[in-house]
Structure formats: structure tokens, C-alpha cells
């Protein structure tokens, strides 16, 4: 049986309940998908790779709970579908290393951080003031910090490990910052500098940037340019532009190729090199169309 053999009325009913987070509804859906067995996979995969990002995230959660999916194939499908949601992509990337990853627990941890920030934000507050609250919660209360001692440890690139160990590299810590900010309704953007990664806020008259690897220190454009020059990089205005989610995830995969290679794990490095190739080929096909 595939998704086409499910009666349209049941497909509609399942889709209407898919984003319901009520525990009873969740259990009922899991029970039904378990009854359907492998026949549930095409139905859920179609939604997971569809244009509705909220439903896609929930469909991915059910696939993970059911343990029916192949994490590597699933991430490749995500890449080729071009529905680039940062949270879904970060979780799918992490599952390629740990198929037993508890997606719901990752979500709960991010929710808890955001809820603590929300409790401390006093409105009206500027974006800088809200980001200062996020810095206090993330880097002081929760203790997130850059992993300077073991920078090339592959664990630094996987969101579940970053949330558990509270340490990571610039890009993964920036992803955590962005996902918490998203829960708070803040307009923040990933910014992939040459050799570094930060978070940008472009809503004020003058943009400012947050260095999550340096415990959330604020920097302006001139300070970023100075940092680049100090690393023998000639800065360009485009360096400070927001980075597409596609490139954030592809860059994480490039890091993992380098870090697994440095760790003497060539097989794992090849897996992530394959993801980089998929991202690049998908982008090229889309650009030509």
C-alpha cells in the first residue's frame, strides 16, 4: 500500500491532525501509522518534503518516532526538495549521525530556553535589549560556549549534541541562537563570514551582529571588518549579507567533512561530502531552471 491507496478522507483527516501537539492525539496518530506499517512512509515522506514547512516538520517527527526512515536518504530527500527550514534541516542532519536522536527532546530544550527569555523580556524592548536577555539566558544561565579546546570534534556540528553538551562551533551555536530567536518572534538572520559565523539583526537603522561563539558579544559592521582584516581577509559588503538556509546547512556539512577527516574517519567524511555534492547539484539545477 502507498499513500495513494489511503482513502482521500483518511488522508485529509491525518493531515488535519498532523500538527496537533496534544499528547492523546499524538499517541492516536502514532498508533494509526504503526498499524499502516511501511505503508505510512510514502504518505509521511510526501508531506515531509512538501511546501508546508510546519506540516513537514511534524511529518518528519512521526517518521523518526516510527523508526521507518533511513536518515541519510531522508536528508538527501530534504536537500533535493529545496524546502529549507533551518530547524528541520538541523535535526535531519543530526539524525544522520544518530538515528535514535530524540527530536521532541531537542524541541523541548529550545522551547525551555525561549520560555525563560520570554519571562525576562520586559516590553517595550528594543531588539538589542531582547538579544541581551537571550545572551544572559543562553551564555550565563544555560552556559553555552564555544568549544575552543576541541574545535574539530564532529559533535560540535550536531544540534542535539550542542544542546546536550552546551558547547559548539560558531555555526552550530548561531543556529541555536536563531532557533530560540525564532520562537521569540525576533527577526534574526544567519551571516556566514569568511572563516567565521555570526547572527545578524537588520531591523534597526544600523545593523548589529551577535557572535554566539564569543558568548553573544555585539559587534557593528566596522568591528566585523576589522576582525576579517586581522585574519588577512579583505572584507566586502556582501560578507555581511544574510546567508540562505541552504548554505548554512551545506556549510555545516563541509565542516563535518573536514572534522571527520581530521578525526581519521574517512567513511563518515564521505557521507557528508556526498551531502555537499547534493546541495551544490540541486542549487545548480534550480539556478538553470
Layout of secondary structure:
Layout: H1 8-17, H2 23-36, H3 40-48, H4 53-66, H5 71-81, H6 86-97, H7 103-120, H8 127-141, E1 145-146, H9 159-165, E2 167-168, H10 170-183, E3 189-193, E4 196-201, E5 208-211, E6 217-219, H11 221-230, H12 245-262, H13 266-288
Parallel strand pairs: 1-2
Antiparallel strand pairs: 3-4, 4-5, 5-6
Helix pairs in contact: 3-4, 5-6, 5-13, 6-12, 7-8, 7-10, 12-13
Share in β-strands: 5-15%
- How would you spell out the order of helices and strands? HHHHHHHHEHEHEEEEHHH
- Structural category is alpha+beta
Uncertain runs with pLDDT below 50, 5 residues or more? none
Number of helices: 13
Instruction: State the CATH class of the largest domain.
Output: Alpha Beta
Specify the biggest β-sheet. Answer: 4 strands, antiparallel
CATH fold-level assignment of the largest domain = C8orf32 fold
From the spread of the alpha carbons, the general shape counts as globular
Mean pLDDT: 91
Strand order of the largest sheet: 3-4-5-6
Amino acid at each position: 500500500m502507498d499513500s495513494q491507496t489511503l482513502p482521500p478522507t483518511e488522508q485529509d483527516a491525518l493531515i488535519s491532525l498532523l500538527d496537533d501537539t496534544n499528547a492523546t492525539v499524538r499517541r492516536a496518530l502514532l498508533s494509526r501509522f504503526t498499524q499502516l506499517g511501511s505503508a505510512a512512509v510514502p504518505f509521511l515522506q510526501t508531506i515531509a518534503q512538501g511546501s508546508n514547512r510546519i506540516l513537514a516538520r511534524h511529518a518528519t517527527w512521526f517518521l523518526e518516532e516510527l523508526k521507518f526512515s533511513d536518515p541519510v536518504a531522508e536528508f538527501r530527500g530534504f536537500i533535493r526538495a529545496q524546502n529549507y527550514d533551518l530547524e528541520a534541516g538541523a535535526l535531519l542532519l543530526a539524525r544522520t549521525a544518530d538515528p535514535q536522536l530524540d527530536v521532541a527532546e531537542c524541541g523541548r530544550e529550545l522551547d525551555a530556553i525561549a520560555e525563560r527569555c520570554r519571562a525576562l523580556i520586559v516590553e517595550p524592548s528594543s531588539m538589542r535589549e531582547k538579544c541581551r536577555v537571550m545572551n544572559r539566558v543562553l551564555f550565563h544561565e544555560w552556559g553555552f560556549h564555544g568549544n575552543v579546546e576541541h574545535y574539530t570534534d564532529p559533535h560540535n556540528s550536531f544540534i542535539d549534541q550542542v544542546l546536550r553538551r552546551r558547547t559548539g562551533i560558531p555555526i552550530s551555536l548561531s543556529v541555536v541562537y536563531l532557533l530560540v530567536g525564532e520562537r521569540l518572534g525576533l527577526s534574526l538572520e544567519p551571516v556566514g563570514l569568511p572563516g567565521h559565523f555570526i547572527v545578524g539583526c537588520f531591523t534597526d537603522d544600523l545593523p548589529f551582529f551577535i557572535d554566539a561563539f564569543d558568548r553573544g558579544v555585539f559587534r557593528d559592521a566596522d568591528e566585523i571588518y576589522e576582525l576579517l582584516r586581522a585574519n588577512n581577509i579583505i572584507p566586502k559588503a556582501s560578507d555581511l549579507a544574510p546567508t540562505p538556509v541552504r548554505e548554512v546547512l551545506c556549510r555545516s556539512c563541509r565542516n563535518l567533512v573536514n572534522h571527520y577527516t581530521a578525526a581519521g574517519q574517512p567513511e563518515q567524511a564521505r557521507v557528508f561530502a556526498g551531502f555537499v555534492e547534493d546541495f551544490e547539484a540541486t542549487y545548480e539545477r534550480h539556478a538553470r531552471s
